Prior knowledge:
Elements: H1 10-17, H2 20-46, H3 50-74, E1 78-81, E2 84-87, H4 90-101
Transmembrane segments: 25-45, 51-71
Keywords: Membrane, Transmembrane, Transmembrane helix
Amino acid sequence: MYVAGVSISDDEATRIRRTRAYRSAVWTVRLGLVLVVVWGWLVFVTKPTDSVLFMVWLAAGLLSVCALVLLRRSGVRFARRGLSWHVEDDRVIRQFYRDVYWFRR
């Protein structure tokens, strides 16, 4: 069952994107993605010890949690769907992914 979320206005979405917490969340996710790539490289190329792999993976996981907290502080609304939490407005999450993967000019 899909629960429709509350849509936010364009002005509110623009206000969210202009906050320092939102920009910090974008850079936090980018850093977490770099750590995941480093983790993959460590696994397939260098064969390090388990503790090194765990520490890199733990750092990436902590950065993900920090990004969610920063998004919440910037004004992004979350809703409960089943056993997990999702962003209420799909436009906000699409814009967030766009901001993460495409650098602004």
